[in-house]
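User: Show me an example of a complex going from sequences to structure tokens.

Assistant: Sure. Here are the input components:
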Amino acid sequence: AQSVTQPDIHITVSEGASLELRCNYSYGATPYLFWYVQSPGQGLQLLLKYFSGDTLVQGIKGFEAEFKRSQSSFNLRKPSVHWSDAAEYFCAVGVGGNKLVFGAGTILRVKS
Amino acid sequence: DTAVSQTPKYLVTQMGNDKSIKCEQNLGHDTMYWYKQDSKKFLKIMFSYNNKELIINETVPNRFSPKSPDKAHLNLHINSLELGDSAVYFCASSLRDSGGICTFGSGTRLTVV
């Protein structure tokens, strides 16, 4: 069965520090992979996606993610975190028919 | 101009009541979805409609009935509400061949007391 694992429930980083959020997926075919961000009281906003091609994808707000097939991973990174990045981040895999299977999310806290 | 709008934003109701949540999108998308986010923040798809046709129907109690009068609207009606239905319900939309690129509404927080 398809699944997405985000091992870190909470992560706290200092403003200006680098960030990496982990995501592992289980899916039999070539995956479509996504990172969405949810700010408090808001809906989800697409940060970036991977469909094919270059395994390092760039997204909005300075985020990037790298697809590693051998590790079934799609980790999200940002070189320098801003206080406005505090939110919850969801990794998802597209499993066909536009259906998304989400991970449980990682809450990012940014300390000044 | 809100792309995907849901009403109401908050809904508090008693067990046993029937309630509806409305969703509208002005993006010209042809596919709409309902997702449920439970208290542990797990997001799971419930339904998907493409041009008013039901495409995805996950294992959801039949007390939940989606209705799509046209491709810009997808409403969710819930009968005989239970405590366990308390959650945040997100509407989303996309083009059919988007591969999963969805635009989400801001959610409806349903509390059943």
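The lines above are the inputs; the final block is the predicted structure for all two components together. The mean pLDDT of chain B is 93.
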